[in-house]
Write a structure and sequence with these properties.
There is one protein chain. The chain is an alpha+beta fold. Helix content is 43%, strand content 19%. The chain has helices spanning 2-7, 38-42, 60-72, 78-84, 100-108, 141-153, 185-195, 219-260, 262-271, 275-284, 301-307, 317-324, 328-333, 336-358, 360-378; strands at 18-20, 27-29, 44-48, 51-55, 95-97, 110-116, 118-124, 127-134, 160-165, 175-179, 199-205, 207-210, 213-216, 286-287, 313-314, 385-387, 405-409, 415-419. It has a four-stranded mixed beta sheet. Strands 7-8-10-9 form a four-stranded antiparallel beta sheet, with helices on one face. A two-stranded antiparallel sheet has the order 1-2. α3 (60-72) crosses α8 (219-260). The chain is rod-shaped. It starts with a helix and ends in a 19-residue tail after the last strand.
Length: 438
C-alpha cells in the first residue's frame, strides 16, 4: 500500500545503517526510515522469551497531531496528550468502557481496557432483534457467533430464537440476533456482554525495541523516540544529498572550465597518445577565465574570481575524467548556458542542505510537514467510541427480566417460585392447577 511505501521513504539515501543478512550474501537495513509512524498507528503483538508486547492501534490523525504537539512542546503533560489521543482506535470499531485503563497504559506503558461491540435494537416484522454493528478487537465473527449459540443452548442466555450473519461488502459487520416474543432486549444485551466475547479485555503492554534493547514505554516516550529517529534520518539524508550535490557541482566546474577554453582542450586531447595521458595533461594545465571572456557573463563570478587567483585552477582527477568521458561531438556541443544554469541550481541546493544541517528548527519543521502530509493522505475517521461508565461486573439483577411471580412457602420452610402466568382464572366449580407438587 501507499502507507507501506512511506516506511521505505528515501531508503537509498544513506539515512539508516546496514548490516549483513543471515547468510552474509547481501546487506539489509537495521531499521526502516519510517516516515509513516507504523508502530504507533498499527500497533504490534508478539511474544519473546520472558516478555510479550501488545501495542494497540491508534488513529492516524490523532497520532500525527500528537507528534506535532510534542514537537511544539516537549514538556506536554499527559492530561493534554490524552485530549489529543483519547485512546486506541481499533479497526473493528467497538466501544471502550471507561478511561482509567487508557490513562494507566499511556502513563506507565501497561494497562487494560474493556471493549464492547456496538449493539442496537431493531424490529423485524413483529419480532425484536439485536443488531451487532461492530465487535471487539481481535474477536473473529464466526467465533463470536459460535459462543452466542453455545451460551443460548446452555441456558446462560435466555430469549434468543435465532442468529444470522449478514456481514459483507455492504455491511462490514452486521450480526442479527432474533429474540423470542417474551424476551427483554435490554436483558439479552447484558447477557451477551457477560457470557460472550462481545465484551472483551484488551491488554496494553508497550514493550518495543529501542536501539536493540526492549523497553516498556509510555505513549509520550514512544512518540519522542519516533521524533528522535526521524531527526537522525533527515540529517543523514540531507548530509548524503549535500555530498552528492557537491560532487556534481565539482564535476560541472570542470566542464565549465573546459568549454570556456574548448580549443585548447581539444588540441591537448589530440596531442595525447592515450586516454590516461590526456587525463594527466588536463590535470597539469591551469585553467583561467578572463573577466572579458565571451562567456564571462554566463559564468558565476565566484568561478571567475577563483580562476584568476595564483596560477589558475588545476582540474582534479574527477573533473578530468568527466571531460575525458565525453565524446568530441559532446564536448563541442555543450552549451555554456545549460551548464551554468545547472551549476547555479546545484549551488542553491547546497546552500539549502547546509542551512537544514545547521538549523535544528528546520529539521523539526520538515517533520511537522511530513506529519501533515501523512494526515492528509492517510487520515481516517475514528472507529472506536467511548463510554465513560466504569463497568467491571454486572449486578445479577440486571440479567433477569422483570416479571410477576407467585412465591409459595410450606409449613416446613420450603420455598417455590412460579411465574404468575402459570395460573389461570378459574371458573365456578373448577379443579384449578396443581402448583405445589411435593
Amino acid at each position: 500500500t501507499h502507507a507501506a511505501v512511506e516506511l521505505l521513504d528515501d531508503l537509498k539515501l544513506d539515512n539508516v545503517d546496514y548490516i549483513p543478512n543471515y547468510d552474509d550474501t547481501r546487506t539489509e537495513p537495521t531499521v526502516l526510515p519510517g516516515r509513516f509512524p507504523n508502530l504507533l498507528v498499527n500497533g504490534s503483538n508478539g511474544i519473546a522469551v520472558g516478555m510479550s508486547s501488545s501495542i494497540p492501534p491508534h488513529n492516524v490523525n490523532e497520532i500525527c497531531d500528537a507528534i506535532i504537539a510534542i514537537i511544539n512542546d516537549p514538556e506536554l503533560p499527559l492530561e493534554q496528550l490524552l485530549k489529543i489521543v483519547p485512546g486506541p482506535d481499533f479497526p473493528t470499531g467497538g466501544t471502550i468502557i471507561g478511561r482509567r485503563g487508557i490513562a494507566e497504559a499511556y502513563a506507565s506503558g501497561r494497562g487494560r481496557v474493556i471493549v464492547r461491540g456496538t449493539v442496537r435494537q431493531e424490529t423485524s416484522g413483529k419480532r425484536e432483534t439485536l443488531v451487532i454493528d461492530s465487535i471487539p478487537y481481535q474477536v473473529v465473527q464466526n467465533a463470536l457467533i459460535e459462543k452466542i449459540v453455545d451460551a443460548a443452548r446452555n441456558g446462560r442466555i435466555d430469549g434468543i430464537a435465532d442468529i444470522k450473519n449478514f456481514s459483507g461488502k455492504k455491511h462490514r459487520t452486521r450480526i442479527v440476533v432474533y429474540l423470542k416474543r417474551d424476551a427483554d432486549p435490554d436483558v439479552v444485551e447484558r447477557q451477551l456482554y457477560r457470557s460472550t466475547p462481545l465484551q472483551s479485555t484488551v491488554s496494553i503492554i508497550n514493550i518495543a525495541l529501542d536501539h536493540g534493547r526492549p523497553r516498556t514505554l509510555s505513549l509520550k516516550q514512544m512518540i519522542q523516540l519516533w521524533i528522535d529517529h526521524r531527526i537522525e534520518v533527515i540529517r543523514r539524508r540531507t548530509a548524503h544529498l549535500l555530498r552528492e550535490a557537491k560532487k556534481q557541482a565539482h564535476r560541472l566546474e570542470g566542464l565549465i572550465f573546459a568549454v570556456c577554453d574548448i580549443d585548447e582542450v581539444i588540441a591537448l586531447i589530440r596531442e595525447s597518445r592515450t586516454r590516461e595521458e590526456a587525463i594527466q595533461q588536463l590535470m597539469q594545465r591551469a585553467f583561467r577565465i578572463a573577466p572579458d571572456h565571451p562567456y564571462a557573463t554566463h559564468v558565476p563570478p565566484s568561478l571567475i574570481e577563483r580562476s584568476n587567483t595564483d596560477d589558475g585552477v588545476a582540474l582534479t582527477r574527477v573533473q578530468a575524467d568527466a571531460i575525458g568521458a565525453l565524446r568530441l561531438i559532446q564536448l563541442v556541443g555543450l552549451e555554456i548556458e545549460k551548464l551554468t544554469g545547472e551549476y547555479a541550481g546545484l549551488l542553491e541546493e547546497i546552500a539549502e542542505y547546509e542551512s537544514i544541517l545547521s538549523d535544528h528548527e528546520r529539521v523539526l519543521t520538515i517533520i511537522r510537514e511530513d506529519c501533515e502530509n501523512i494526515r492528509t493522505r492517510f487520515g481516517t475517521p475514528r472507529l472506536t467510541g467511548f463510554e465513560d461508565a466504569e463497568v467491571e461486573e454486572y449486578d445479577l439483577g440486571e440479567l433477569i427480566t422483570e416479571h410477576d411471580v407467585v412465591v409459595t412457602i410450606s409449613h416446613q420452610g420450603y420455598v417455590k417460585r412460579l411465574p404468575l402466568n402459570t395460573y389461570r382464572e378459574q371458573g365456578r366449580g373448577g379443579l384449578g392447577v396443581r402448583s405445589g407438587a411435593t
